[in-house]
Design a protein that fits this description.
Length: 174
Amino acid sequence: MNKITLILGGARSGKSSYALSLAKQYKKVAFIATCLGLDKEMRERIRLHKESRPKHWKTFEVPEDLAGLVEKLGNSFDCVLIDCLTLLVSNLILSKNSQQQILKKIEELMFVLNKKKSKIILVSNEVGLGLVPVNKLGRDFRDVAGRVNQIAANNSDEVFFMVAGIPLNVKGEK
């Protein structure tokens, strides 16, 4: 039976590092990256992230259709780590998906993930703790990311909130 773990936190809170530490307990890991290297600085970040992962993990770079990829993977991995849902939301917004379309895609993803036999680890940014964004695009992003996090948390067995590299248990076994 699978177990879904959601790891939330702000920028540089230790989300990805914690996710990696959890996934390293498994032999066959599928790492699903949603980031697009659209500029030199982001491509360097991606390179550093890749170097931090064990070489035997299988990496999939999928900016939008995560449910389709997860379906194709079947049950051939012990662990599936998705980093991160917030970048997925950003990609979907930039591809002109409406909030309703994005939420439907996340519901579909969670449905597919809940059918898996493997351990699932999701990483997402908590974007609702800061100031209200000054422009509509920023507010739309914050709103849909918050709703995506709610869907993911509702469908997860465990939820951790990262603060300065320390995981705080929000949901699940204490």
